[in-house]
Amino acid sequence: MSFLQGLPIADLIAHYGYLAVFVVVALESAGVPMPGETILISSAVYAGSTGSLNVVLIVAAAAAAAILGDNLGYWVGRRWGMPLLLRYGHLIALDHGRLKLGQYLFREHGGKIVFFGRFTAMLRAYAAVLAGVNRLDARRFMLFNGLGGVAWAGIMGFGAYACGRSIEHIVGPVGLTLLAFVVFGGIALWLFMKRHEERLLVKAEAAIPGPLTH
User: Which chain regions cross the lipid bilayer (predicted)?
Assistant: First the structure.
C-alpha cells in the first residue's frame, strides 16, 4: 500500500476498514460527492497486497452501501422532487445542467440508467436521486439498483484485489510499466468521460430548451 501512503483515503482504510468503505460509498450513492469508487478500489488493492482485509467483506460492504444509499437518494428525489433540487442542488454539485441531463437520459433510456449509471463517474452519485425525481417505478428501480450495486462492487472490488495480489510480485521495469499504464489509462478515461458529459449536456439542452420548472 506504499503507493497510497500520504493520501487521506489511505488513512481511512487503515483505521476504519470496512466501515470506511460502507460510509463513503453510501454517502456517494445518496448524492453526496464522495470518492466511493476510489475507496472501493483502494481498499481491495490493499487487501490483495497486504492481506489485512477480506475482499469478500469489502465487496459486500460496498454493495450493501450502494444499494442502501441509492434507495435513500431515490426516495428523497421522489418525495421532494424537482423543487428541492432546483433550490439546493448546487450544494452537491448537481447544477441546472446536470438536472436537465438527468431528465434527458431518463426520457430516452428509462430505468436502464439505474444499472449502467453505477459504472459511470458522472452519474453514479445522481442516478438514484434522478430516478426518484423522474418517478421511475419503484419496483423497477429496486431491481436494477440491486443488480447494479452488486455487479459494480464485485467487478471493481475483485478486479482491484487481483491487481493488489500481483503488485507484491512485480518489481523493477515491469512495475514501473504497469504503474504508467494505470496512471495514463486513468487520465485517458477521465478525459473521455469529460468529453462524453459535455456532448450529452449539449443534447439535453437541445431536447429540453429553457429553464427547468417545478
Answer: 12-32, 44-68, 141-162, 174-193
One-letter amino acid for residue 10 of the chain: A
Q: Give residue 29's identity as a one-letter amino acid code.
A: S
Instruction: Compare 192 and 82 and report the one with higher pLDDT.
Output: 82
Cell of 3: 503507493
Number of H helices, E strands in the chain: 8, 0
pLDDT on residue 146: 93
Q: Are residues 61 and 149 in the same domain?
A: yes
Same domain, 33 and 123: yes
Does 3 reside within a domain?
Answer: no
Based on the fold, state whether residues 103 and 136 are members of the same structural domain.
yes
Domain count, the chain: 2
pTM (whole model) above 0.90: no
Range of the domain at 199: 172-213
CA distance to 98, 103, 114, 193, 194, per residue, from 198 (Å): 10, 15, 20, 9, 6
Same structural domain for residues 119 and 180?
A: no
Q: Please name the residue that has the C-alpha cell 489509462.
A: 185
Assign 8 a pLDDT band (cuts: 50, 70, 90). low
**CA 158 from centroid of its chain's CA atoms:** 16
Question: With bands split at pLDDT 50, 70 and 90, how would you rate the model's confidence at 3?
Answer: very low
